[in-house]
Amino acid sequence: MKNLKEVSCRIREAVENNEKIVLFSDSDLDGITSAIMLEKSIALLGGESVVYNNNIEKEGRGLTEIAVESVRKEAPALLITMDCGISNFRGVKKANSSGFQVIVIDHHQAVNELPEASLILDPMQEGDNYPFKKMANAGIVYKLSKEILKERFSKKEREFLELTTLATFADMMPKEEDNLEIIKKGLESLKDPVNLGMRVLKKDLSEERLVEKAVFLLNTTKYLEKTTTGYHFLIAEEEEKAKKIAEELKCYYKERQELIKKAEEEAEKKVFLDEPIIFLRGSFPPFLSGTVATRVIRKHKKPVFIYTVENGYARGSVRVPFGEDAVAMMKKCKHLLENFGGHAPAAGFRLKEGNLEEFKKCLISRGVGYEPNNL
Asked: Which domains are assigned to the chain?
């Protein structure tokens, strides 16, 4: 995988030189498991790192310029993004000028160009000849940790397999090739979990049901000062603390389900079925747009663009029918977007509020929502 050895060497060098290392990850399950694995790998080498999970509601998705402000006090430092960064051109540029050296670790599609990071580890980038491109970000960090730790990796292998399995299911990555190998080993380990949090959830559950429950509870959790409750649950070292957080997660899950139900009902009222795409504004919290978009597309089977507006900017999520490519769709109208990116079936975007109607017209005029071979 392109830059795997180079990133490993740079992290080992930072540990040896006692450099400050900041780990900045997405706040979903793929992001927090990635951060935990790299944090534990660095600790096993004798180093320290500071973890930040992306506060999507306040910062937008990924290493945005606002997010850089949140971590600026840590500079100078080596800043490593996980499950984000590949399309955060302005954020990476601002981080560079703020005293950080940036490494991007991501698994999303690169959008034409690459950010100005010192190193990029992403099998989707041009020039990467690694044959399997559909790993969760945690799968990439799993391989990176193995490269970093060398013979010490055996001390963390089972736990890291468990975490990577959770992320692979949570991000709905295909169960094939590298992923299938990890899932088989991870599910075997989850019969008797190494991770304390997973042991707490395990009671009376098969390993498959355990993964399902963990994804429900941990893929979206409450944001605390710098990190999420999901992160703290998976790093807990005391059973009572893990049990307490588990109860908090269950309560938050119920609250979130109520919010999702109301948001879905609101979205359904705004759907115009005579248009080739579903393009609508929600008044619900921004972090719900992806979940709502997923539910809407399951019902209507056409490209869904759902967004919320704040401070003159619209931020939204895209879901498209199987076999179509959300990122490719948005590339056709990229001149109207501040940033965008993601996977083929699921992506996100940000643009000025004043460009919304033109963005919709552009998508339709370029064939989005009609037969895939007309795109």
From this structure: 4-235 (3.90.1640.30), 270-374 (3.10.310.30)
